[in-house]
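Lecture notes, unit on protein representations.

Consider one protein chain, 326 amino acids long.
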Amino acid sequence: MRAWQVGRLGEPADVLSLVDVPEPQPGPGQLAVRVRASALNFPDVLLCRGHYQVRPPLPFTPGLEVCGEVVAVGPGVDRRLGERIIGTPAMPHGGLAEVAILDAVDAFDAPESLSDAEAAALHIAYQTGFVALHRRGQLKAGETLLIHAAAGGVGSAAVQLGKAAGARVIAVVGGPAKAEVARQLGADLVIDRREQEFVAAVKEATGGRGADVVYDPVGGDAYAGSAHCVAFEGRILVIGFAGGAIQAPPLNHALLKNYSIVGVHWGLYRQVDPAVLGESHRALTGLAASGAVRPLVSEVLPLDGVVEALTRLGAGDTVGRVVITP
């Protein structure tokens, strides 16, 4: 089969090779899937660079999110051949290949209401958003939700989930094309950070109160500004650091303004409380069936398009989700 492999660490264009390798076989508690679609994530770029919290042994195949058809099961796995599932592959046999390996606990039934490409894009970003907004952020209907990088894969999911929860959504984006995407997703107010200073815009839109919940997958300056426009008893959700800078927040500021800084590590629930993931998947399947959420798939590319797509993703030049179909 064909698979992209990282043989050394660096930028995707420098370290990825498309090679022919034997099809991997599932071990105990695992299953193999014929990949029908693999959604690209910023952590795939970080994996190539060696900057992700997980560092698989070299060589490995990246690709953290797939929709696939079960073609083999290992001992102890209660899955039928031919089932359509979504989930997170087990490294080193990631989703940027024709066949991937998943631990059975990381495989979920693919929503019937979504195409393969949409289903592949539902898992990580939407589970992260659902857990962040509802479990960690305690978002309530009528509250104001500020979302950074709102036209990207993670942010676009948060916009839809925020609207589904009854929140007023303020979307921060970079550039007019991304602003239009955020409007189409349903954001109530869109701020182009290249044209206006988002802190002042948020304060003006909220009558000086600020945002009740901030969804921040960017970090750095985005976080620093958010601390100045978060509401009394607001919650800043730390999703990631796509901007490259990891902030060191002054805790006296959080004390004086009475807001919470809330970490969101979605993958940790697999180890600590896996039932949360099952509950979130059932809720997301229902939201997808009702039409309340639908992943924004901006591009569907063949396996040969991985390097170019990951390069653009790493540079912040994509909107929504880019999906690979082997």
